[in-house]
Amino acid sequence: MKRMSMSLFVAACLVLSGTAWTAEPETNVNVTKSENGASVQGTSKVTATIVGIDAATRTVTLKTRSGKVIELEVTDEVRNFDQLAVGDTVKVAYHESLSLSLLDKKSEASRTESQSAERSVPGAKPGGTVGREVTVIADVVAVNAKTQMVMLKGPKGDTIDLRVEDPERLKRVKKGDQIKAVYTEALAVSVEPATTK
C-alpha cells in the first residue's frame, strides 16, 4: 500500500500520470486533422472505492477495481470531508487537448492563460473541477523538410522544434508563418454514495 499526503486534486493528477496506480487509467485519445491544422484530445478515467477513512488524520484509503490500494491525506482545501463514507465511489477524469493551426493573418507573438476551479457545495460529497487553457501564437523561424521539423519562436524568444509527420502539411508551412497553439487541461473529481443492496 502506498501513502501520500496531498489534496484530492493533486492526488488525482498523480493517479492519472501513473505515479500512484500504474496501468489503472482507462484512456481514450482522438486525433483530428483539418485543412490548416490538427488537434489531439485525450481523456483518462480512474475509478476507486473508499475502503477506509481516518477522520483524525483526514486519511482516505482507496481501492481500485484491480485491487490496488492507496492512502490519501486529504487537505483542508477539499470541502465536505465529513460527507465521505466507506463504500463511496471516487471517480477521476482528466482531459487534455492540444490544437495547432496555421494563421492567415500575422499578429504579434503572444501567450495567454486562463484558469478555472469549482468545488462542491457545502454539505455535498467532496469533489470539483480545475481547468487551464493556454493559447500561444508563435512565429515559424525555420522549416527543415528533410527532418520534417518546424522551429517555432514564442513570445519570450524561446524556441521549440515541432515534428510534422504529414509531408503534405509540411509543404504548406514556411518561414515567417505563424502558428496558434491552444492547450487545455481539465480535472474532475466526484464522489458517489455507496450503493445499498
Automatic annotation (TrEMBL):
Residues 1-22 form the signal peptide. Keywords: Signal. It comes from the Bacteria. Residues 105-128 are annotated as: Disordered. The keyword Signal applies. This is DUF5666 domain-containing protein.
